């Protein structure tokens, strides 16, 4: 399913395949851009591809990519979630405070359940307001962003969570791995594969694309639009909660609102990764590639000793380019489908 409507006729099925092929080229272009970026940076500084350098890139990408997976479901349904960064901050601090109160009795599993539950509650609130109260998603999630930030600062009261107060197993999750591969990227890849398989293989997963393509048509086709949008926000919030726990495990020391501004980076990663901001198009694989590209650009600029301002400028330029490309491709594909439809009708 895509943002371009295609019927169930043989011509419609071939048109749908054409649309999928065109937009899948976006993901291949991201891989090519990553390869060029890595090759150029390595040519200038061979240490960029050292074992520790590669490990740092994957660790730095993991949480952003995890949030991008959740955000993808929301954007595919033609909505947006600007509260994910504040949810990460709230969960990271609250979970740290919770487990540090009894570091021997509250281990990794307890921390994960606690953090995901907080994130899910935040996502549920967003989903109810957007899907059932029909408040615009931009207004709802911008409002909850500030509410959650304020709640985080109120709970923190200027305090700080220190790594020495956390269970060693939790810190091990964030900084160690298996067979040389850190746990955080493994978790992200597992989540990505599971969500990607669900969206492609299950009718309920394809409903998200139908809603993004045309909410009214999806409703007439019997798709439970409100429930699916609610589920998208619930899932995005739960993954943001998981991201908050992993943030705590990764960095150990946490203050109030540590992920301030991440909501825009997450949206940028999703859109750069080929998930159309108008909904109905994209995959979680592309979103993760977008997150990896943005993180690699940041690491490359540090290695090349370029001012960090240019990372923000490049991110903005990539975002504008991605939206422009989406629009151009959508217009051209629509014209091509109309021509095929006329020929098929003739």
TrEMBL record:
InterPro entries, sorted: ABC_transp_permease
Domain of life: Bacteria
Keyword list, A-Z: Cell inner membrane, Cell membrane, Membrane, Transmembrane, Transmembrane helix, Transport
Protein's cellular compartments: Cell membrane
Coiled coil residues, start to end: none
Sequence intervals crossing the membrane: 28-45, 57-76, 111-132, 180-199, 229-249, 261-278, 285-304, 310-330
Pfam family, one: BPD_transp_2
Self-association and partners: The complex is composed of two ATP-binding proteins (LsrA), two transmembrane proteins (LsrC and LsrD) and a solute-binding protein (LsrB).
Function: Part of the ABC transporter complex LsrABCD involved in autoinducer 2 (AI-2) import. Probably responsible for the translocation of the substrate across the membrane.
Protein name: Autoinducer 2 import system permease protein LsrC
Source organism: Sphaerisporangium corydalis
């Amino acid at each position: 399913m895509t943002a371009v409507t295609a019927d169930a006729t043989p011509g419609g099925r071939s048109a749908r395949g054409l649309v999928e092929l065109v937009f899948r080229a976006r993901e291949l272009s991201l891989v090519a851009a990553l390869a060029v970026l890595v090759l150029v940076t390595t040519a200038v500084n061979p240490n960029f591809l050292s074992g520790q350098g590669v490990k740092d890139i994957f660790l730095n990408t993991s949480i952003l990519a995890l949030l991008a997976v959740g955000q993808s479901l929301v954007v595919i349904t033609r909505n947006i979630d600007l509260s994910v960064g504040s949810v990460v901050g709230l969960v990271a601090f609250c979970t740290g405070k919770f487990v540090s109160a009894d570091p021997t009795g509250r281990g990794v599993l307890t921390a994960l359940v606690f953090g995901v539950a907080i994130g899910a509650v935040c996502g549920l609130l967003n989903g109810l307001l957007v899907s059932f109260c029909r408040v615009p998603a931009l207004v709802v999630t911008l409002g909850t962003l500030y509410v959650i930030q304020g709640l985080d600062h109120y709970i923190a009261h200027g305090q700080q969570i220190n790594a020495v107060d956390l269970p060693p197993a939790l810190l091990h999750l964030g900084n160690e791995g298996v067979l040389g591969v850190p746990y955080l990227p493994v978790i992200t890849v597992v989540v990505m594969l599971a969500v990607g398989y669900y969206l492609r293989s299950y009718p309920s997963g394809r409903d998200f694309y139908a809603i993004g393509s045309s909410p009214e048509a999806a409703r007439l086709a019997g798709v439970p639009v409100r429930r699916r949008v609610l589920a998208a926000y619930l899932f995005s919030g739960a993954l943001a909660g998981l991201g908050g726990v992993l943030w705590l495990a990764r960095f150990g020391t946490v203050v109030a609102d540590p992920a301030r501004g991440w909501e825009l980076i997450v949206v940028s990663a999703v859109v750069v990764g080929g998930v159309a901001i108008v909904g109905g198009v994209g995959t979680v694989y592309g979103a993760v590639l977008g997150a990896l590209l943005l993180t690699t650009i940041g690491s490359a600029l540090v290695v090349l000793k370029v001012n960090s301002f240019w990372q923000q400028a490049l991110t903005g330029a990539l975002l504008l380019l991605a939206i422009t490309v989406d629009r151009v491709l959508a217009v051209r594909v629509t014209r091509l489908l109309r021509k095929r439809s006329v020929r098929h009708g003739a």
